[in-house]
Please model this.
Amino acid sequence: MDMPTPNPAVLARKARIVERLLGVLPKDAVIHEEAETRAYECDALTAYRCPPLAAVLPRTTAEVSAVLRICHAEGVPVVPRGSGTSLAGGALPTADCVILGVARMNRVLETDYDNRFIRVQSGRTNLSVTGAVEADGFFYAPDPSSQLACAIAGNIAMNSGGAHCLKYGVTTNNLLGVTLVQMDGTVLEIGGAHLDPEGLDLLGVICGSEGQLGVVTEATLRILPKPEGARPVLIAFDSNEVAGACVSDIIKAGVLPVAIEFMDRPCIRACEAFAHAGYPDCEALLIIEVEGAPAEIDAQLALIAGIARRHNPVEIRESRSEEEAKKIWLGRKSAFGAMGQINDYMCLDGTIPVTELPHVLRRIGELSAEAGLEVANVFHAGDGNMHPLILFDANKPGDLQRCEALGAEILKLCVEVGGCLTGEHGVGIEKRDLMTVQFTDADLEAQLRVKDVFDPAWLLNPAKVFPLRVTEGRRAG
Amino acid sequence: MRGLLGREGRSTLGGVVAANASGPRRVQAGACRDSLIGMRFVTGEGVVVKNGGRVMKNVTGYDLVKLMAGSHGTLGVLSEVAFKLLPVPEAEATLALEGLSHSRAVEAMAAALGSPFDVTGAAHWPGRGTYLRLEGFSASVDYRAERLAALLAPFGAVAPVASPWAAIRDVKPFHGRAGDVWRLSVKPSDAPGLVALMAAEVLLDWGGGLIWALVEEGADLRARLPGLKGHATLVRASAETRRRLPTFQPQPAPLAALSAGLRAKFDPRGILNPGLMA
Ligand SMILES: Cc1cc2nc3c(=O)[nH]c(=O)nc-3n(C[C@H](O)[C@H](O)[C@H](O)COP(=O)(O)OP(=O)(O)OC[C@H]3O[C@@H](n4cnc5c(N)ncnc54)[C@H](O)[C@@H]3O)c2cc1C
Model:
């Protein structure tokens, strides 16, 4: 993975840059000793590491603005960082960059149940947003599996999703406003407690821009009343195709489950060995969760079971208690941990039209066999967002490269069938060079021009999202 | 909008997207832009650009789909759009309360929208009623209607009524009436206070978050609402009034600069709807 050569002029001015940063931040908020900057050398894409020039941990929007003014004046690239759980290398530093971490900005600023929103500092973790309103019967809908750790800042930058997004939408559909600090230090208020901000939808393009347009310091988020109840059902099949067809039929029937999760045999096996959730030994497994009052849940589950039965399931397991419901989710929720136990893995994130599911799973099986690397599939089937996990051994020379090559083939397949490279993890550095598979030069140019407007000097997270060759002239200038 | 604007012809999907036009279901299902998953458009330079696609979840590159939705044709001409579709609900029910003041109505709507009963419409039509909609499978709608009615009992008698939603979406009360029409997006609980300052006839949708206001011709409604948090759009007015008052809420300078910057990149010669959003 190529990264741009660090700017020698910036490296040479490290002492002066650090001194200026110390002029606007308390001492403990500027990290510049080599041993300590290592803590910021990577995100959850751990195959790639590089300690930054320095890292700063501001506590207020004013401090963020002061830091950015300095970096702008000194021509120092800035990589914003939330909790560093990006799987795409979105928060990977370069040696000449300042990491701007918002982890200390974690306060709740306002909760308003009448108007159903919460305003938080962006470093607050996803789960603790729900935590702040749960006792009053509300929740924040987007729920990435990393929700215990990841920050709202990263969620906004990646437009993150989660298992329950089938019904409630992803981050962009639940974001009402942000405070954004531009690279030159200008503080912008976009949106707020009202719907649909005036003028061009800047909020819409900021969400998902991977820290390249500005630093988000505060966010107004939509909160929703908690449903009366929720219950999952587990349905086991002896073929991926049939499970895929069942998903299509459920969606067509007008039931809107909050989640439809899909696991294939390699994944079921690994989860079973790890979490002992008592999953049936089968080829494919669906976990479908519905919400509502007890009678509504029963009615929806009966409808789903009826559809499933037409597809000859191996087993339909309903949950009659909280305990049983937890057990159904247990295996799925520990999927990533389970994989981590057996092996190193790379988690892909392409989305495909749901109707292509059987075909794509078959092709992934073939590609996996050709490459000699095992692939386990666990994903959000309701919206076609796949998560093929490629297992490899990081200590075995060449394995990472083979894994990346297989990953690229699988993502190309997703695009080929009418899908896309990434459904919720973002492009980062990981899928940067595949962007030309999905987009023409003109498509990319239109996106680059948006960055030209927000960050004319191309200092914010400049080496991400777009192939380096495409951004070369801009990053230099 | 035909009835409100007194025009003939039919809306096109391109127009709906360009205006990010959303109806009463906005409170629950999101705006037009939230259902939009892909598009192709032609910039002011004649370049064809594709963004998004035809899948439900997609974070590949910048979300220009959102930027284009609501850009009123100032960034490009939309040639293809792709939407996420939902199954048509099996049943619909509307509950009505009568005789509520603006503030009591907004409170009732907040109570309903803050309940777990999945309300898909909440509007206040002064002089007519305060309306709440439920949709879904019939048994579920019946159950939720009963629970919602119980929840709303403190606000007065709750009765099921025929669907008023098409009329609310089309702003029926202002059709064929003299005066200018404004559309405001605000924090719902601010609505009663704002309405008191407006000297206007109003229709409240989105639980109070959307205010349709009918005022005397030529009035500058924005001037009556200093410090407005949200925005006011002039929807219907004479050419003379339009020359004096901008259609869209003026933006703070740094935001206006970003918008102008984007327009300059997508339409360097300023040939697309010149002056409309500037
Ligand atoms: C085990 C595991 C499970 C996961 N499951 C999911 C899942 O289910 N769904 C999903 O969508 N993702 C998932 N992820 C990916 C990841 O958690 C998300 O992308 C998350 O939103 C990243 O948040 P973060 O705070 O850790 O951001 P970081 O990793 O710190 O940064 C991510 C990106 O955001 C930018 N950024 C950070 N802060 C700011 C800011 N203040 N302003 C502007 N830009 C900023 C960074 O520059 C970077 O590009 C998972 C990750 C792991 C490790």
User: Anything to note?
Assistant: The mean pLDDT of chain B is 96. Chain B has eleven helices and eleven strands. The domain at 91-169 of chain B is CATH 3.30.70.920 (Alpha-Beta Plaits). Residues A 43-44, 79-87, 90-91, 102, 122, 144-146, 150-151, 153-155, 157-158, 160-162, 210-211, 215-216, 336, 424-426, 461 surround flavin-adenine dinucleotide (CB under 6 Å).
